[in-house]
Amino acid sequence: MRAVKSDTYSIKELACEFGVTPRTLRHYEDQGLLTPERQGQNRIYHANDRVRLAWILRGKRVGFSLQEIGEMLDLYDIGDGRETQRSVTVEKCRSRIRALEEQRDDINATIDELQEFCELIANLVRDNKNDQWIRRDTGEPLRHYPPRN
Amino acid sequence: MRAVKSDTYSIKELACEFGVTPRTLRHYEDQGLLTPERQGQNRIYHANDRVRLAWILRGKRVGFSLQEIGEMLDLYDIGDGRETQRSVTVEKCRSRIRALEEQRDDINATIDELQEFCELIANLVRDNKNDQWIRRDTGEPLRHYPPRN
DNA sequence: CTTGACGTTGACGTAAACGTAAACTACGTA
DNA sequence: TACGTAGTTTACGTTTACGTCAACGTCAAG
Q: N vs C: which end of chain B shows fewer Cβ within 10 Å?
């Protein structure tokens, strides 16, 4: 049994908590996204590693590559920040925000179309007379959308 | 020069218009996402292919795999829709929508954090006395966020 | 008739993000 | 002390989404 726990995690504990494998955490370390403490050979993860991991995984969920995530995390590491670098950081950050906003627009558009289509099917009923689909509300015949040739 | 144009596209025309390569369109066809008309060997793309391609590319932008996009497009191909299949389609569709909404939440959270961080840096200034960064507005010393060990 | 632009089908290459297996170490316990 | 559990490194395998040839067909222009 470990003597002191004090808010630290083994690789398996942290991985398990976030639903990833130890291999994944090592991979992120290889890519420079995580730099856990070492006790001899073994990795010891602290609260800050947890925070970074959460960031990484959310970045993944929104579609960034590990490299892009690394660059975004680098934006945060400005301890040695030179005055001139600061405006660069800000600009990169803003450009990221714009990209995310565009992506959000794409998502909203997709949601809208799926929603519309979903309701359309939900209201759909077979007009058995002429063997084709019509809308229950308008009686309009259904044309495939998006069209299949 | 082609005799009749009538809203058709060569592979290069369509690819070029959407900023992808012909290879990409052939790949999408291999995956069953597009099925352009053939004139002999050559592919002829129509308006419906355009619509589908736009869908595919937007799907990619929001982070779906080609397989997932294919499944979503399949939802639209319900011309032979059996009554029992319909509720399945609706449920799949709704589950997609929920996933997209979660993804949108992730994006919003990321935007918020980047925005906050961005403004923080913009207001940052070096306190030369003790050689560390402080916030211009509050004078608070800066702690890295997310923390680097 | 040859050249060039565009098209076709293989088929192999590649980068990213891990999976997986091998071979080894260290430790608490039965 | 032998065993099981958890950790380590090294290294090759895998999937996705195309890129990149190679080798060939086709058609209009010079």
A: N
Residue ranges of domains in chain A: 1-77
Taking CB atoms and an 8 Å limit, are A58 and B110 in contact across chains?
Answer: yes
SS3 assignment, position A59 = helix
**Does nucleic acid strand D have an atom less than 7 angstroms from the CB of B132?**
no
- pLDDT (tens digit, 9 = 90+) per residue, B61-118? 999 999 999 999 988 876 555 666 788 888 889 999 999 999 999 999 999 999 998 8
- What's the topology of domain A1-77? Multidrug-efflux Transporter Regulator; Chain: A; Domain 2 (1.10.1660)
CATH topology for the B1-63 domain: Multidrug-efflux Transporter Regulator; Chain: A; Domain 2 (1.10.1660)
Is a pLDDT exceeding 70 seen at residue A130? Answer: no
> Among residues B27, B121, B20, which one has the least CA distance to residue B61?
B20
Residues of B in contact with A93 (CB under 8 A): 114, 117-118, 121
Question: What is the Cα–Cα distance from A69 to A71, expressed in whole angstroms?
Answer: 5
Query: Measured CA to C1', what is the nucleotide nearest B42?
Result: C7
**Residue A145 DSSP class:** S
